[in-house]
Design a protein that fits this description.
about 210 residues, six-stranded mixed sheet, about 15% helix, Jelly Rolls, five-stranded mixed sheet, 11 strands, single chain, alpha+beta
Length: about 210
């Protein structure tokens, strides 16, 4: 194989990675997490490792599943980055789910739902958001409204939960993400065609 043909072949192999890296703020840069975990409470929470790594979970709040729980463990003095958003759909224009951070060292305030013993909460509402940030993810061809992004300093180590719920008892699709560091393995890239299909289906993109 000539040197030029070798370089061309290498470029084709690296094209998916390059496409994502061209959009460093894209939802595609999140590593999607698809599981069958019920995620309705702490016992069935979707457990995420490496909370510093950018990861996203796509779920739907329903009457039978009014809360979406993610669980993760952090070391002492950890900066947690979190986001919540919804697909761009007419029926979700006024959907304003809240995030609730649950864990040790947080204020012991009344929670909108039952939480584990000896944990506190921090509620991050979105009901005052009038114009959410529009985001088009080029690689999957999907659109989202980003409702809120926060970086929270966690002084105490241990297990934390990020929970999505609707204060107004609304139902609808949403996504939750944690972490900023982009990290993909060779196995991840193999999964990308499947991920793209699932993400487009969630956004109801034909």
């Amino acid at each position: 194989m000539s040197f030029s043909r070798h370089i061309l072949r290498l470029g084709v192999l690296l094209l998916p990675a390059a496409a994502v890296m061209c959009f460093p703020h894209a939802a595609c840069a999140h590593r999607p997490v698809f599981t069958k975990d019920a995620a309705k409470d702490p016992e069935t929470a979707i457990l995420l490792t490496e909370p510093q790594v950018s990861q996203v979970v796509y779920r739907e709040i329903t009457d039978k599943a009014p809360q979406i729980w993610l669980g993760f463990s952090v070391p002492k003095d950890f900066e947690l980055y979190i986001q919540i958003g919804v697909p761009v759909m007419d029926r979700l224009k006024k959907f304003r789910p809240s995030m609730v951070l649950v864990g040790p060292g947080l204020p012991k305030k009344d929670a909108p739902f039952k939480i584990p013993k000896d944990m506190g909460t921090r509620i991050l509402a979105t009901n005052e958001v009038k114009k959410p940030r529009f985001f088009h993810e080029h690689f999957t061809g999907t659109d989202s409204w980003i409702l809120r992004s926060e970086t929270i300093a966690l002084s105490e180590p241990g297990r934390y939960y990020l929970v999505a719920f609707s204060p107004d008892k609304q139902t609808g699709k949403l996504w939750l993400s944690i972490g900023k560091k982009e990290s993909f393995t060779a196995e991840d890239w193999k999964q990308f065609p499947t991920w793209r299909k699932l993400i487009r289906a969630f956004h109801e993109v034909k």
